[in-house]
Amino acid sequence: MVRVIGMGLACLDYLLRVPDLRTVHRGCRLLEFNNEGGGLIATAMVAVARLGGRAELWTVVGQDHHGRLIEDELLREGVDLSQTVRLADWPSLFNFVLVDGRTGERVFLSPGIGWKLSRSGLEGDPDWSHIDSADSLLVDGFWRPMALKGLKRAREKGVPTCGDMGRIGGNEELLELIDYLVVPRHAAEEVAGSPGLEALTALNGFGARAVVITLGPRGSIYLADGEMGEIAAFEVEVVDTTGAGDVFHGAFAYGIARGWALRQLVLFSSAVAALKCTKLGGRTGIHDLVQTRRFLEERMPGENLSWLSEER
Question: Where are the domains of the chain?
Answer without folding.
Answer: 3-299
